[in-house]
Amino acid sequence: MFSTESPALNDVLKLDFDDEYAPSNGVGRPKPAKPYRSSGFKNAQFRNDRPSTGRLTRSLVRFFVAIFIGVGATLAWQYYGGEMVRVWAPSLDWLLPTSPPGPAVTATELQQQLKPMAIDLALVRRTEEQLATNQDQLARKQDQMAQTMSALQAAQQEFTQQILALAPPPTPKPVHVPPKPAQAPAQ
Structural domain boundaries of the chain? Predict the structure, then answer.
């Protein structure tokens, strides 16, 4: 069963800090598990390996604030084109893109580039003039139609009056009055 020898001090220390059971050399005994604690009101706190909700919320807020600052800085950089950087921190001017000098455009090249646009503009002007002319013609035709309509209405009224003047006046119908019943002589 058990040996009468006492375990060495190193083995006892090893038992306390090593695995749950003692070495398999037969010396020692199983290490007892953690002591039992009753789940009373005082010990009602539950141990959770997850971070608390408050810490998680603070971490998320910090993360999103950093993201929003980065997005805002990027949008400002794009909007102002780096001009604010040149004003606020001239030493960071090397970060800004430099525009290479473009090829020089001569007057003849510029005229050749603008010629199709000038032709298109002339066509648009001509079309606008034609539309204005057509609108004027339509307005004149509308006025003529209105005058013709009023002349036709006047002629219709005159014709109706002439027909009524030529027609004989209507003869009145004789009114038939029923005779009164004769009364018997009173005696």
Answer: 1-33, 53-97, 104-162
